[in-house]
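re: ur question from yesterday

yeah so i grabbed the chain u mentioned. its 191 aa long if i counted rite. heres the sequnce exactly as i have it in my notes:
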Amino acid sequence: NGSGKSTLLKLMSGVMLPDEGNVLTRGRIAGLIEVGAGFHPDLSGRENVYLSGAILGMSEAEINRKFDAIVDFSEMEKFLDKDVRHYSSGMFMRLAFAVAIQTDCDIFLMDEMLAVGDQPFKRKCLRRISELKAEGHTMVYVSHSPRQVMRVCDRGLVLRAGKVAFQGSAADAVKHLGYDIDSDDEDENGR
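ran it thru and got these structure tokens back, copy pasting raw so excuse formatting
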């Protein structure tokens, strides 16, 4: 905690500007940086699909085309017409993730997105992340779960006080942090 992971993602997504220097990226970026970010509490889930999609760079026609796939993936059809202020963090995550993975982007930024929600949905998200990765998309994934990091990531970057402390394979990054990669001692949140 406090190493600069979330700040790095905010810089990469353009949500935050660097104090000095430049951030160069190539391709379209979809950021899942904060659960519920880009959602307005006074709007329904349905309206927020359009708002979030627009923030992620999708046109209204594109959102219309992908709307059913978003709803199907989120499994939120019964709650779409309720104001999101009544959503749990897991419900926010479901809808936000479902919108983001429907964007035609090159890079997905994910900050602790799977720290909330139920296990079956987390597994569904991890499967989809693996599919996107196999299709050639870049995933920048922040997690405190060594198991999730090794499942999702090929490479690992360890930050300490905003500086790179280690770069290498995901397994070596997890080992660098002192985790036993052969252990099954994680709780349901991957900690």
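noticed a couple things. The chain has two domains: 5-142, 144-191. also Residues 57 and 83 are 23 Å apart (CA to CA).
anyway ttyl
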